[in-house]
Amino acid sequence: MFPFFGDINAVIGAFGCIPLDFVLPMVFYNVTFKPSKHGLMFWANTLIATIFSAFGVLGAISSIRQIGLDAKTYHLFANL
Prior knowledge:
Elements: H1 5-33, H2 40-72
C-alpha cells in the first residue's frame, strides 16, 4: 500500500533535511555573529549555503520526477 514510500522520503529529505542540516545553520551563523564580509568564514558559509540550496532544489526535482516515473508502472496490490 506504500508503493512510493522511498520516493516520498526523498522529497521530504530534499525539502526538509538538506535545508535544516546544511543551509540554515550557515545562514543563522552569518546573521547571528556577523563575521566580516571580507573574511573567509562569511564566504565559506555563504558558499556552503548556496551549494546545498542548489542540491536541495535538484534533489526535490529528481525525486518528484522519480515519483512520476514510478507512477507509470504502479499497480495496486501487484505481485512484485
